[in-house]
Design brief:
Blueprint: H1 2-45, H2 52-101, H3 107-120, H4 126-130
Helix pairs in contact: 1-2, 1-3
Length: about 130
Amino acid sequence: VIDMIYKQAFNASNIAHLVHMISETYTEVSSKYLMDKVGSLSRLISMDPSNPQFRMERMKLADGCDEARQAIEDLVIKQKKEFENSIHARVAKINSELKAVLPEVPEAERKAIEHNVQKGMREITQDEADQFM
């Protein structure tokens, strides 16, 4: 029973943490890198394509988009590393707090619990990682 509670609490905590990280990243990306570009798009759409200023604005937007893409990629890589470090720290904290309150568990039972927890945790797949790149 304790193992089931631990596993469910751990998974719920990880999911909540992941949702928070994704929404925080989305908000940061949107405000820092996307909204200004969307605003300049409306100015570009309203210009006459034969106007020399149109080409300059278009190149400026393209350069800004390239810079934003690189900055977003760097941010996502940084956030992913921070998330992984945070998860490892949370696992260590949960383990230490559980050890403090739970009675000593026989070695065989402890290994079975660790095995079940590891089965419940999985590495992120390449497809899942790619959606953030």
